[in-house]
Specification:
The chain has helices at 4-9, 15-18, 44-55, 63-77, 104-116, 141-153, 194-202, 222-240, 262-269, 281-290, 300-313, 325-334, 363-372, 374-397, 409-415, 437-445, 463-475, 483-493, 513-528, 566-578, 609-632, 636-648, 663-674, and strands at 129-131, 135-136, 158-163, 166-172, 180-184, 250-254, 273-278, 295-297, 317-322, 341-342, 401-402, 452-458, 506-511, 535-539, 547-548, 582-587, 597-605. By secondary structure, the chain is of the alpha/beta class. It has 3 domains: 12-202, Urocanase fold (3-Layer(aba) Sandwich), CATH 3.40.1770; 222-443, Urocanase like domains (Rossmann fold, 3-Layer(aba) Sandwich); 451-605, Urocanase fold, CATH 3.40.1770. The strands form 3 sheets. Strands 3, 4, 5, 12, 13, 14, 15, 16 and 17 form a 9-stranded mixed sheet that branches. A 6-stranded parallel sheet has the order 8-9-7-6-10-11, sandwiched between helices. A two-stranded antiparallel ribbon has the order 1-2. Strand 3 (158-163) and strand 4 form a beta hairpin. The longest helix has 24 residues, at 374-397.
Length: 676
């Protein structure tokens, strides 16, 4: 029989090498946000399995002490986090040279992981949750320690495989292969739902990656600042007739957390007036300290009066309303206040896990009820969501433009019992009565052209490197080509002034396929010439080609393929085949388990000519796979973009483009058959 001694002797990377003896429990700092107790549905047998699964990381001599500790964690928190193995104090993304590894990529990934867990960045840093209520770097601190240990040993001829946070191991590959391949929560279809995921995470076999959390590419809320800024500007162009900015107009929304914290800053950059509701005062304080909101009030009348004052002056202001969005909208309806643009950025992909606070509860009461009376909490969430929807519908009837910002708000309302939010009043198959921001705005005006949020991190940690990359990126953009390029040229021009950095020295910028390649090659040249240190390049899931999500990223796909995940999978596989440094495939990013598949990448720019060659083939692919799929769905702007691409790259690439039909003829033909 195989013994634990035999097993230990067969491994050189293990916790007993990281720790020569069992570490003491670290001290937890007061005032750091903690995750609420997670739903616990395990049977006695499943609890035993969960405990055994956690002890798989632990040398036998520590089992007797840690088994009761892990069981207490599981029963008290709904998860086994392995707090004992967390490094004490603040974790943050340090300069790349402060990390150990046998290759540059191994150091770079450690920068990114630690940035995801920074107190200033992470939602619940002690529970490894970066953002979105449940998006984790990995499941527990044993995995964190082992991943770090593996990355320290990683060479440029090996690949580290990570499955839902678990480091499966190092495997031989080539210098042109990915250094890390990550998957998160890829559940088999029959079990791909919230109920099974809750059970799987509690048992320690699934991790909700949210892509940039579990794909180690989060750069703080700056990313969503840019996405929201683009969305607001283009919503203004479509619905309000603006040309350049939102001066004089009012935007109302909710959420100032990890992803939603961008809203105040975004409306200010767009030069409008904004009121953002938030129940958690700690999130408001964070944004106030950052300068991302200007004032705070808990009085709805005061909030709207102050916004009107700035609208009249055509000056920008971001107002944090400390209270529930439903109360704020109730006031607007009762007092006939006109709202130009309305949205929501609460974490409605997880409304029953704390992502949505029902009307009538304070944040503290929400947290207590979530842990002690989940059934009652869920009923209150449903009631609040339905009323929230009714208020929005009334405001829309009065001239407000409401859009779902991809947080599954409309799906949550439908699930809460308001079937009339569905276009057909029966199910979600034909979509909802209000548009997704992608359906109306981002899809046709950005994604169909290939524009999306690529990002970079200056791994040196030097702010001067970031300033240099900002200047280089701006020089690569022709602001007179399209309004999309103008918007992004202005964005990068003003990035320093707007003080967008939270955590690592990072930037986000929307560009199309060729724009991204041009900028990436320029940065790699700068690294090669010693002008800047190494750079990590990546992107969000909120992009043209990486994500299949019928309620968000692919909401403007109308050929029936919106329920297919071929694009995201091919994006992931294609990036791996072309040699991106890190490739990741996740279930559920942004909208919840079973509602999305997204493929992402990270690319370390080390200045080498090898990286140049990878960038030339991988960067266009990563965006154009999405343009090609959108073109095949008969999206007009994607068709024209694909035609241009075929012409420009006729010697190397070729996209299949659909023939169009006479819509009236098809309708008439089908009508005749159905009316027989």
């Amino acid at each position: 029989m195989i013994s634990n001694v035999d097993i230990s002797n067969s491994m050189s990377i293990k916790l007993s090498e990281v720790f020569k003896e069992l570490p003491e429990m670290p001290k937890f700092e007061e005032g750091i946000r903690r995750a609420p107790k997670r739903e616990f549905t395990l049977s006695k047998r499943e609890t035993e399995i969960a405990l055994k699964n956690a002890l798989r990381y632990i040398p036998e001599e520590w089992h007797e002490e840690l088994a009761p500790e892990f069981l207490d964690e599981l029963l008290h928190y709904g998860r086994i986090y392995g707090y004992r193995f967390r490094p004490e104090g603040r974790i943050n993304g340090k300069a790349i040279d402060e990390y150990k590894s046998k290759c540059t990529e191994g150091k770079a990934f450690q920068v990114m992981i630690d940035n995801n867990l920074d107190f200033e960045v992470a939602l619940y840093p002690y529970e490894l949750v970066t953002y979105g209520e449940t998006g984790q770097v990995c499941q527990n601190w044993m995995q964190y320690r082992l991943i770090k240990a593996y990355l320290e040993e990683l060479t440029d001829e090996q690949t580290l495989v990570v499955a839902s946070g678990h480091p499966l191991g190092l495997f031989k590959s080539t210098p042109n292969s990915p250094r890390v391949i990550i998957t998160n929560a890829l559940m088999v279809g029959m079990f791909d739902d919230q109920e099974h995921w809750i059970k799987a995470t509690a048992m320690g076999v699934a991790n909700y990656g949210q892509m940039t959390a579990g794909g180690w590419m989060y750069i703080g809320p700056q990313g969503i600042v840019h996405g929201t800024y683009n969305t607001l500007l283009n919503a203004g162009r479509m619905k309000l007739g603006i040309e350049h900015d939102l001066a004089g107009y009012l935007f109302v929304s909710s959420g100032l957390g990890g992803m939603s914290g961008a809203q105040g800053k975004s409306i200010e950059i767009a030069k409008g007036a904004g009121i953002i509701a938030e129940v958690d005062y700690s999130r408001i304080k964070t944004r106030l300290d950052q300068g991302w909101v200007d004032i705070v009030t808990d009085d709805a009348e005061d909030a709207f009066n102050k916004a009107r004052e700035y609208q009249d002056k055509k000056e920008a202001i971001a107002i944090a309303y400390h209270g529930n969005i439903v109360d704020l909208l109730e006031y607007a309806v009762k007092n006939n206040i006109h709202i130009d643009l309305l949205s929501d950025q609460t974490s409605c992909h997880a409304p029953y896990d704390g992502g949505y606070c029902p009307q009538g509860l304070t944040f503290e009461e929400r947290t207590e009820m979530l842990g002690n009376d989940k059934e009652k909490f869920e009923k209150l969430v449903d009631k609040s969501l339905v009323h929230h929807f009714e208020l929005i519908r009334e405001l829309v009837d009065r001239g407000t433009y409401f859009f779902d910002y991809g947080n599954s708000f409309m799906k949550a309302v439908f699930d809460a019992g308001a079937k009339d939010i569905a276009k057909n009043g029966i199910d979600e198959s034909e979509g909802f009565i209000f548009p997704s921001y992608v359906e109306d705005i981002m899809g046709p005006m950005l994604f169909d052209y290939g524009y999306g949020p690529f990002r970079w991190v200056c791994l040196s940690g030097k702010h001067e490197d970031l300033i240099k990359t900002d200047k280089a990126a701006m020089d690569c953009i022709d602001p007179d080509r399209r309004f999309q390029d103008r918007d992004n040229w202005v964005w990068i021009r003003d990035a320093e002034k707007n003080q967008l950095v939270v955590g690592t020295q990072a930037r986000i910028l929307y560009q199309d396929a060729l724009g991204r390649m041009k900028i990436a090659l320029k940065f790699n040249e700068m690294v090669r010439n010693g002008e800047i240190g190494p750079v990590m390049m990546g992107r969000d899931h909120h992009d043209t080609g990486g994500t299949d999500s019928p309620f968000r990223e692919t909401a403007n796909i109308k050929d029936g393929s919106n329920i297919m995940a071929d694009m995201a999978t091919h994006c992931f596989a294609g990036n791996a085949a072309r040699g991106m440094s890190l490739v990741a495939l996740h279930n559920g990013g942004g909208v919840g388990i079973g509602k999305s598949i997204n493929g992402g990448f990270g690319m370390v720019l080390d200045g080498s000519e090898r990286v140049d060659e990878i960038l030339k083939i991988a960067m266009p692919w990563d965006a154009m796979v999405g343009v090609a799929r959108r073109s095949w769905a008969r999206n007009e702007n994607s068709i024209s973009t694909s035609m241009e691409y075929n012409k420009e790259f006729k010697d190397t690439d070729h996209i299949t483009i659909p023939f169009l039909v006479d819509e009236d003829y098809i309708k008439e033909l089908v009508d005749k058959k159905y009316n027989k």
